[in-house]
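Subgroup meeting minutes
Present: P.N., E.W., G.H.
Scribe: E.W.

1. P.N. recapped why we're keeping a running log of single-chain structure predictions: easier to compare across weeks, and new members can see raw inputs and outputs side by side.
2. G.H. added today's entry (59 aa).
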Amino acid sequence: MFGAISELLGVLLHRTILVGAVLVAMRFLAEGVYQPALALIAVLAVFGYMRVTDAALLE
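Output recorded in log:
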């Protein structure tokens, strides 16, 4: 039981962090602060690439 709850909380935390990073990057872009926005977008792109390639390698 605790494994399922722990996994659910981990997924929830993971999604919250991703959504927060995307929203912060969007706000930076809207305010015209481009350097931190591009840095966040680059990190998100690398993270997305790792998730896709890692999932493909594990299959």
